[in-house]
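Glycosyl hydrolase: structure tokens wanted.
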Amino acid sequence: MPSAPRFGVNYTPSEGWFHHWLDFDLDSVRADLDSLAALGFDHIRVFPLWPYFQPDRALIRPRAVEQLLALVDAAAERGLDVNVDGLQGHLSSFDFLPAWTRTWHRRNLFTDPDVLDGQAAYLRTLAGALADRPAFLGMTLGNEINQFSAGPHPDPDRATEAEVDVWLARMLDACEEGAPGRLHLHAEYDATWYQDDQPFTPAQAARHGALTAVHSWVFNGTAQRHGRTGTPTEHHAAYLVELSKAWAEDPHRPVWLQEVGAPAPLIPPEHAAAFTEATVEHALDCPDLWGITWWCSHDVSRGLADFPELEYGLGVLTNDRRPKDLARVLARAARTPRPAPAPRTTALAVPADPAQRSRCAPGGDVFDAFFRLVADGARPTTVLDTRARDTAHLAARGITEVVAPGQVLPTPQGGTRS
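Answer:
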């Protein structure tokens, strides 16, 4: 764990969005990175688009890899470390999958032997090319790749939990073979924690890879139910950080808040800075937080078509690289020293059975009980119901009290728990 949580952004190029790989302009990238370094960030997460880098299963384009290395080197010159996502995958409502996995060549992303061979070769190649760069943090397998494995995706690549286990182990091994000892991980959207039939499970998220990644988006029903200033809305990112800890074997496994943003219109632009400040402050009160990486660096150009409206304005900087108020909030948080948070001594018991994950989702009894505790002044974490009497596990995490969701009663005055 670093001595203090890290602050960074998911890098969305100001010119061409992620299609910039087709017309790579290093000067434009450098200008983007200058605008980020000026705010005091210490890392970025970058996104090679998989079909641009590996258009054929046997072709990983050398020129594309060289461009990625040039970006990483430019970031390093500005004091920015770099995490690289591999299998893109899914970004901002668009799917980017190579033609050798779709339509006439339709093969399952998680189970087909030839596809797995191609994926492993690609991840190993990227990691190997980056292995000697000191600024390279490690690989993330792909961005929210679990969205391909189940509904509501319109054409899912179905897999079982056991098949996902095998896939995760093989892909993470490929990253480790390419760049031994780096922080290699995988990252899913919140269906992993909330959707009963999702084959990517909380246990996999909390046990595979060097650390746990969570992606917090309050358009999942949280802000719709509770409003932009509701306790669950402002604490949603912290909730996911603490929820993930229930499944971890390591009592102090690092958790990376790898994506979090202020989506309009649920968070109107004039209130984005206040939401950002609240979200960051509550997340920083979570022990073992590796870092916070905001989505995203620069707004999407209005010259690009067909994005959902909210995607155009998520940047901490405008499309012409001017910082917004929320950028100043993040910059201030990044440079403000603070003591390490105290252990969270009250734990809410959550179901170990992945078929009951919807209880943890917005509207579920676990979700509601957690935020009743928060509203009453507690600093809750979570523990699996199967570990609620495991005194060694509880002691290792500093937990002194375990409560079940049904024990947490509403207190209309929002007073202190007795």
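The CA atoms of residues 179 and 319 lie 34 Å apart. Residues 113-130 form the longest helix (18 residues).

Cheers.
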